[in-house]
Amino acid sequence: MRTYGVKKPLEEKKDKIDTLKEDYQRYYPVDRHGQLDEWGAVIKRQAETYQKEQQDKAIQKVQDQNKYFEDLAN
Description:
Elements lengths: L9 H13 L15 H36 L1
């Protein structure tokens, strides 16, 4: 993944992050020092995306196998 531009300072995003947490939407995890972990959020998002892609591939494979089996049966 690539990013372009300049990262905004955390102070500018603090209010938006707090409202996301209050609305039960995606939030930044907190590190062991009590600070918001922006890189942890990026890594978590990438891991979730990878897991979703793998799950979708597995579902598609099963569907393809079932279709192939039905074609053979006909």
